[in-house]
TrEMBL record:
<keyword id="KW-0732">Signal</keyword>
<protein>
    <recommendedName>
        <fullName>Gibberellin regulated protein</fullName>
    </recommendedName>
</protein>
<dbReference type="InterPro" id="IPR003854">
    <property type="entry name" value="GASA"/>
</dbReference>
<dbReference type="Pfam" id="PF02704">
    <property type="entry name" value="GASA"/>
</dbReference>
<comment type="similarity">
    <text>Belongs to the GASA family.</text>
</comment>
<feature type="signal peptide">
    <location>
        <begin position="1"/>
        <end position="30"/>
    </location>
</feature>
């Protein structure tokens, strides 16, 4: 019985593609699963574009310590960190920068 050479190649490519996708998902998820010592560099970047650096850093570090997550970028993207996004002030505004 003759085997088709493409079936083996296709199987190997499929396995590598799946491993690659799993690796990418772990990298993306890992951005939001921080350790407490990872908060300062992430918050430094998050607050780098604001003119109110001290309050931004204070609240970002507080939010990161509680949520172990900091959204990517210097503004927005809060939907990637539900805890960070949903923590509100007494007045109902966003607590986290």
């Amino acid at each position: 019985m003759a085997t088709r050479p493409y079936s083996t190649t296709s199987s190997v490519l499929l396995v590598f593609a799946l491993l690659f996708l799993v690796t990418l998902s772990d990298v993306a998820e890992g951005y939001n699963n921080l350790r407490p010592q990872d908060c300062r560099p992430r918050c430094t970047y998050r607050c780098s574009a604001t003119s109110h650096k001290k309050p931004c850093m204070f609240f970002c570090l507080k939010c990161c310590a509680k949520c172990l997550c900091v959204p990517a970028g210097v503004y927005g993207n809060k939907q990637t960190c539900p805890c960070y996004n949903n923590w509100k002030t007494k007045e109902g505004g966003p607590k986290c920068p």
